[in-house]
Design brief:
heterodimer, A: alpha/beta, Rossmann fold, 2 domains, 7-stranded mixed sheet, 5-stranded mixed sheet, 14 strands, B: alpha/beta, 5-stranded parallel sheet, two-stranded antiparallel sheet, 10 helices, 12% strand
Chain lengths: 315, 274
């Protein structure tokens, strides 16, 4: 069964508005597509659309937060993080303000709108800033829990959502927890670890099923807390499986793959392959056709898993 | 009507702030004395006449807010905060030194500082957020001041914030342009002309007043005018002289980011009457 990230986000905004009675939401003329309009309808006095002015939106969010209230700034991932990057660094992260950047439209899952709207660098640049935390929801079922974790964590947090409809991995949205700094092990295995974020988690699960038929026992990890990263689980699975594939809808430079590589190299080096954009821009097109053309597929995860296993055996 | 005694006291404070700044930047051998000197009277009136704050509780929620968007004028702000009692005056002489409280540009770790600035163009947005926050939280008495440079108006984000402030009817927000007509590379008029200021801000929906930024009574009156705003944010265009009070700095754009020599410091202290 598939469902929609953004509808889940609308529900989550309203739920957080109730759980955090001082919560203020700021957006930049995308209240419909981020579904923050649902928050506006429920809590009109705590909602501000500041027009098409993302840099200003970050500054306004920073200023509001000085009244000791949590603030969410929500927009598309490109415009939420890349346009106001320096504002996020200097106005939110350096002073460690309690502002959460909640982004829809992560990665090439944006589809038809094309490259200008497809954030494939956002995880890399957000995790590079001190004090910033980075969470990526794998399915709509995790969205509410991701927001709750972001709002319960002091300081700036970036939450990234995809745009496509996604396979529901967590059916009990109210029962899901999203602990900061913890990965979610979805499947145990001994031969290779498939670690994914966002929409790629579901593809990793499907790849693991296929690999099982070839007697390759793959573990699958939802790396939803990209920063802080769950080093202990990663090291545990590096020891256990000796081979890694990291899959994400993001450039292969600096994103989740980079984060995992940093952890493995420092702690327990094993062969690691990436399934990600190959340092290129994509194009307009249906989201799943783009995924096929740019290698974000079950088949490619299987190929990379086999390569990682071969490299392990060659050592 | 403000008494002559009050005015004299504030003028004395501005003189003292300039003394602090020249000594701080001399000790640090780094920093921006000229853009600090142009703000001495504004800072003196803010901290010793107008603002509501509590030095024993710097994060008191009903405090008025100040955002120094032209963050490079940090020395004069730090001097005012120290003279007001937010932290020990001794800190002033550790400006910009490793391990010290007073960073090269303002950050919120410093008591009395509510917005991290220094990257130009960002502060007015934060001030808008504070003014919105005051309204959302029902803190009607809180007034927010943002101090921007005339050269800084080249940053597009200033104009995003200008529109937002008028749109949200932020009558609890006052911005002050320190119009000293110089920026890093020279005269603002030559680099990127940001004039006509008055007409721009009126057309952006602000109530405006133009004053001599070194005249304490005019500053006091402008702040009173701002605090009585009913529906609009207030822009105070303060005509100032970069380096005012230190003759060696006047009309010397190359000194934007140049600390004083010992001789220049001593000469300035003499000119200030110390």
């Amino acid at each position: 069964m598939k469902s929609n990230f953004r509808d889940a986000l609308g529900d989550a905004f309203v739920a957080m508005g109730e759980e955090f009675p001082d919560l203020v939401v700021v957006t930049a003329d995308v209240s419909k597509s981020t579904r923050s309009i649902a928050f506006k309808e429920k809590f009109p006095s705590r909602f501000f659309s500041v027009g098409i002015a993302e840099a200003d939106a970050v500054g306004i969010a920073a200023g509001i937060s000085t009244f000791d209230v949590p603030v969410i700034f929500t927009a598309y991932a490109v415009f939420a993080t890349e346009k106001p990057f320096e504002q996020i660094r200097n106005m939110l992260c350096y002073p460690n303000l309690n502002v959460k950047v909640i982004a829809t439209h992560g990665g090439i899952s944006v589809g038809e709108d094309g490259v200008t709207h497809q954030a494939i660098e956002d995880i890399a640049i957000m995790r590079a800033i001190p004090n910033m935390k980075v969470l990526v929801a794998a399915d709509p079922g995790e969205v509410k829990a991701a927001l709750r974790t972001a709002l319960s964590t002091k300081g700036p947090v970036y939450v990234r959502l995809g745009r496509s409809d996604a396979e529901v991995l967590h059916t009990d949205a109210d029962g899901v927890t999203f602990p900061l700094g913890k990965a979610e092990v979805l499947r145990d295995g001994t031969d290779v670890t498939l670690a994914g974020v966002g929409l790629l988690v579901d593809l990793c699960l499907k790849a693991a099923e296929e690999l099982e038929k070839a007697s390759i026992h793959a573990a699958v990890i939802n790396l939803r807390s990209v920063k802080p990263l769950d080093n202990s689980t990663l090291i545990q699975y590096a020891r256990k499986t000796g081979a890694f594939v990291v899959a994400e809808d993001h450039n292969r430079v600096g994103g989740t793959g980079g984060a995992v590589a940093e952890c493995l190299v420092a702690n327990f080096p094993v062969p690691m392959e990436q399934v990600a954009l190959d340092d290129c821009f994509a194009e307009s097109g249906k989201d799943m056709l783009l995924y096929q053309k740019y290698g974000l597929t079950v088949e490619n995860i299987i190929v990379k898993a086999r390569q990682a296993v071969i490299r392990k055996q060659a050592r | 009507m403000v008494s002559g005694e009050t005015i004299q006291k504030l003028e004395q404070m501005a003189r003292l702030l300039r003394k602090d700044v020249i000594e701080m930047t001399y000790t640090a051998q780094s920093g921006h004395p000229g853009g600090s000197f142009s703000l001495a009277e504004v800072m003196a009136v803010l901290y010793f006449h107008d603002l509501h704050y509590n030095v024993n509780e710097p994060k008191w929620l009903d405090r008025d807010r100040v955002v120094l968007s032209k963050g490079h004028a940090a020395p004069v702000w730090y001097a005012a905060l120290a003279e007001a009692g937010f932290f020990d005056r001794e800190e002033l002489y550790k400006l910009r030194k490793i391990g010290s409280l007073l960073q090269g540009h303002p950050c919120i770790h410093i008591p009395g500082v509510d917005a991290t600035t220094g990257s130009l163009g960002l502060g007015l947005s934060a001030a808008c957020g504070m003014a919105i926050g005051a309204k959302v939280m029902g803190r009607e008495n809180v007034h927010v001041y943002a101090i921007v440079g005339d050269g800084e108006l080249g940053e597009g984000q200033i104009w995003e914030a200008a529109m937002a402030a008028a749109h949200f009817k932020l009558n609890n927000l006052t911005a002050i342009i320190d119009r000293n007509r110089y920026q890093n590379d020279g005269k603002t008029a030559d680099i990127l002309n940001t004039e006509p200021l008055l007409e721009k801000w009126i057309s952006f929906g602000w109530q405006t007043v133009e004053i001599n930024g070194h005249n304490v009574s005019e500053i006091i009156d402008a702040f009173a005018f701002a605090r009585n705003a009913s529906k609009k944010p207030t822009m105070i265009i303060a005509n100032t002289i970069k380096g005012n009070g230190a003759s060696y700095m006047i009309d010397q754009p190359k000194l934007h980011y140049t600390p004083p020599t010992e001789e220049q410091m001593e000469q300035t202290l003499r000119e200030l009457g110390f």
